[in-house]
From TrEMBL:
Toprim domain location: 1-58
Transmembrane helix keyword on record: no
Stored PANTHER family: PHP DOMAIN PROTEIN, TRANSPOSASE
GO MF entries: isomerase activity
Alphabetical keyword list: Isomerase
Natural source organism: Lactobacillus helveticus
Keyword Amino-acid biosynthesis in record: no
Protein name per Swiss-Prot or TrEMBL: DNA topoisomerase III
């Protein structure tokens, strides 16, 4: 990291440390929330001791901004989980097609494959049992079903899909 980036990060870390309330005003998708959580995690902010609010804006007009600040939401309500094992949406987009192609489409999916994959990474990183997955992930049985599907090697000489995508994300070595 360059010296100027380190200086900039130190300023942000100091502000986050001093604040009682943190307002997350990143883009409205999970990726923006992931960035905010990553910064707080890197800055070693104890989020359990802070009030974290979410600023939602539909416009950058003065009245919309004032209304947004008057109606700050509970950030935790809109961001169901964040664990160190989670990957970003941008990283997931690199493997999304691989994972979605592995399953026949017989009915519309109701669970975000990103959440299933992050839950799988949680189990792999933490070594917990499937039933001990945190409740903010999809049901353990659903995650286990996908893990079983992704872990089967199609042939003895071809690695399992899970191994392939973990390598693609550089989460495991060759």
């Amino acid at each position: 990291m360059s010296a100027s980036k380190k200086d900039q990060f130190k300023v942000v870390k100091d502000l986050l440390t001093k604040a009682d309330t943190i307002i997350v005003a990143t883009d409205s998708g999970r990726e923006g929330s992931n960035i905010a959580w990553s910064i707080m995690s890197q800055a070693q902010i104890d989020v359990k001791k802070k009030t974290i609010k979410r600023l939602w804006l539909n416009s950058l007009e003065k009245d919309a901004i004032i209304t947004g600040f008057k109606n700050l939401g509970d950030h935790m309500q809109h961001f169901s989980h964040h664990y160190q094992s989670d990957i970003s949406r941008q990283q997931f987009d690199l493997i999304r097609q691989d994972l979605e192609a592995s399953r026949k489409r017989t009915h519309p999916k109701h669970i975000d494959p990103y959440d299933i994959f992050c839950a799988t990474l949680y189990v792999l990183k933490n070594g917990c049992t499937w039933r001990d997955l945190p409740a903010d992930y999809p049901k353990w049985s659903t995650v286990y079903y996908y893990w079983m599907s992704w872990s089967k090697a199609p042939t003895p000489d071809k690695p399992a899909l899970l191994t392939q995508v973990l390598k693609k994300l550089s989460l495991i070595d060759d």
